[in-house]
Amino acid sequence: MKDLFGKAILDYQQGNYTEDIITETSISEEDVLPLPYLFRGYDEMPALEKKALDMARGTVLDVGCGAGSHSLYLQEEKKLKVTSVDISEGAVKTCKLRGLKDARVADVMLMENEKFDTILLLMNGAGMCGKLKNISGFLRQLKALLNPGGQILVDSSDIIYMFDEDEDGGRWIPTDNEYYGEVEFKISYKGEEEKPFDWLYIDYNTLQNAAHAGNMNCELVLEGEHYDYLAKLEPESI
């Protein structure tokens, strides 16, 4: 990986902002991801993210922290102990430059011997598991990182709306993937292209089923304005 995402974030942090990130998926055309958006404050965040930050408590693990905006709010405004992890070296370097006390280059799937009260997966954070077949193992790992009484706060989107609707109200969904929410993601920045990677948009019912299969409760906390939602997952009481 070239870490173009991290390179772009670090460029912005260091005053070298001249271009935005270009994203594209297997079911959508090129789109612009403005770098300033990744550095937004609480007041500029969508309602789902605000709600998640309001609900965060105790020790927090921010998975896929990016530029660290969520972590920074929790550390500075709510005075919580936050561990911010991302596989992007550029992102983590940016987080440290912004003042985050515990930012690490790490894969959450390899973390062990640590426990948290709140695990955050924001900006379609569940997507990092790539394929629906991976969601069980993903949730099992997150569950193992929770303290008793801990919670996982995750947002995602049901992208069924992106597929054509027929006269009967059904959807024309390609059979290339096992699940319609699986997409291939591409990122380009300053003329360079990242190797495509798998990303998952999971609808709430499917997430709920996966959670229950893993002995976790799943609650729909808030629905967004465009097929997106925030969910809270907690281990079932024994």
From TrEMBL:
Origin: domain of life: Bacteria
A GO biological-process term: methylation
A GO MF term: methyltransferase activity
Matches recorded under InterPro entries: Methyltranfer_dom, SAM-dependent_MTases_sf
Keywords, alphabetical: Methyltransferase, Transferase
SUPFAM superfamilies in the cross-refs: S-adenosyl-L-methionine-dependent methyltransferases
One of the Pfam families matching this protein, by short name: Methyltransf_31
Domain Methyltransferase span(s) in chain numbering: 59-180
Name of this chain's protein: Class I SAM-dependent methyltransferase
Organism: Abyssalbus ytuae
